[in-house]
Amino acid sequence: MSGKLTRFLGDTPGRTVVKLIVISFIVGAVMSAFHWYPIDVVYAIRDFLVNVWNLGFAALGRFGDYLLLGAVIVVPVFLVMRVLSYRR
Predict the structure, then answer these.
(1) Contact predicate 66/60, CB 8 Å
(2) Where are the alpha helices (DSSP H) in the chain?
(3) How far apart are CA 6 and CA 4, in angstroms?
(4) What is the pTM of this model?
(5) pLDDT (tens digit, 9 = 90+) per residue, 67-86?
């Protein structure tokens, strides 16, 4: 059993725990220096997804605006051209 656990962890369980403690301390110190907290990461991911969602619908709104602006010119021109070609 110990061989499988060591192979899974990449080192002995004791050394792996010590490595994790040291790395956790370093990461915690850096995060504290920048005033970052784990919940801030969650909020940042949430805000990013909300912004992407909002930008997507804003792009669809702009698409609709462009469509209406173009239709104001294209549809009357199309109708006039059809009426003029109908006489022939």
Answers:
(1) no
(2) 2-9, 13-33, 38-86
(3) 5
(4) 0.49
(5) 888 888 888 888 888 888 87
